[in-house]
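hey so i finally got around to running the thing on that chain from the lab meeting. sorry it took forever, my laptop kept dying and i had to restart like 3 times. anyway pasting the input first so we r on the same page abt which one it is
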Amino acid sequence: MDADGTVGGFRRGFWALAPLWLGVIPFALAFAVTARAAGLSLLETQALSVFVFAGAAQFSAVGLIAVGAAGLEIVLTTFLLNVRHLLYGLSLGRVFHLTRRERPVAAFFLTDEAFGVAAAARERSFAFLMGIELSLFLMWNLATFSGFLLGATIPDPAKLGVDLIFPLAFVALLVPLVRTRVELVVAVGAGALAYGLQQSLPGGLPILITGVAGSLLGAFLTRGTPADPAIDAEAAAREVA
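ok and heres what got predicted. didnt touch it at all, straight out
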């Protein structure tokens, strides 16, 4: 891909995620306030957003730090909360044909929101994917820095109702992907299972289990169905491009 195509793909990816900024920014601000209240410095707070870059894991880590938890407990909790990204990577790896050097970069910046936007998009270039991921990374870190400086003047995002933005956004991304009866059954079944599991299991385990169960259900319901040759042709065309 030439330089113009790379820049254009990055720009399209960057703005594709922009509608989700409205939900990202308030929670990054709230994270910074929480970290500051837990006794973390600006550098430590910003380092979490740069090197961990996982909202739920960062909130949990700050809470554990505040109560004096051991380092191993913090690491294990963060791992459980982020283990779902393994499924995200496997899923995107089937449609984004990345080089060995590109894969770890894309994996580091992968988030729930970035996965949702990338999975629903038609464009499959590395530049497009990085545009999506860095769009969120930039906003999250700018909001973290601002939130730490603004301090307690920031209201609770849940009280403003912005906690509804992410679920609604993911529903909007999911709907165009559900095109057959089997896909509808898998989507509804996986959603019901995830809702039930999150009542009793911690962190990202419900998503991990649901992802595996949903894949197995889809494979069972489509057993004996011949593969769509158009999918391979489309992948080959992207490889040539």
